[in-house]
Amino acid sequence: MDTANTTSSADSASTARTAHAAHSGASRTVLVTGAGTGIGRAAARAFAARGDRVVAVGRRAEPLARTAEEHPGITPLCADVTADGAPERIVRTVLDAHGRLDVLVNNAAITGRGSLGAYTRAAVGPLLATNLIAPLLLTQAALPALVENRGVVVNVTTSVDRRAWPGNSLYAATKAALEVLTRSWAVELAPRGVRVVAVAPGAVDTPIGEHNGLTPEQVGRLRAWQLAHTPLGRLGTPREVAWAIVQLTAPEASFVTGVVLPVDGGAVVA
Predict the structure, then answer these.
(1) Given strand 53-58, what is the order of strands in its sheet?
(2) Catalytic site residue 171?
(3) Among residues 81, 171, 202, 206, which one is catalytic?
(4) What is the pLDDT along the chain (270 residues), one digit of tens a residue?
(5) Could you tell me which residues are beta bridge partners of residue 155?
């Protein structure tokens, strides 16, 4: 008898049983920011489809209501993640409603294009507040609940932070900083049972450009630039990014932490 193979098979079976039990047990509670449109909306719906209870956070009530349409597992929560005290209020609302928090998806972001010579303090502040400070403070506020439930943090970054992005360098820099936090938090929180991962979308068909004041002509030029740097030759969809987010939080991914997963049609490696 091959004892090593027998032991390996037993370990694999045990791992599979544990994963199945976790997956088929009580639904998790998931908090998704920037859930009114795009990737956030798709992620909220993907989690709800697997039976999780989702709190969808955004600044505007109407888009959040559309996110939750025909998805009874989604609860809209209108809040500005950059407001003073907002992280604590958001987490308290989740815990009051559901009694636990298992997954935090830091997705809310703004772009704010501009060249080095054009940036002003007034323009820089909202970018840092939304893309970097808010995820940090929200994760901090959620940490006790995540530790209690051996939860997962998913930070949504961008694959373009790994190359030059003229005219949008500050946005890319905030996402690169969030990836450093992802890796650092993964090591820091591993002993406490919390996993931290990131998903880095490339060119994805979302309205983020329009939401940040780009004209149709500017959006068109941006899309052309993105497609020219995407080997698969097309835009991704929010659902494709949401799939990656959900998969990284699954019990079967319980040995994955600190990873930044590009979902970008090959842009990173081109």
Answers:
(1) 74-78, 53-58, 29-32, 103-106, 152-156, 195-201, 260-263
(2) yes
(3) 171
(4) 444 444 444 444 443 333 443 444 469 999 999 999 999 999 999 999 999 999 999 999 999 999 999 999 999 999 999 999 999 999 999 999 999 999 999 999 998 777 787 888 888 999 999 999 999 999 999 999 999 999 999 999 999 867 776 777 888 999 999 999 999 999 999 999 999 999 999 999 887 666 666 788 877 887 888 888 899 999 999 999 999 999 999 999 999 999 999 999 999 888
(5) 106, 198
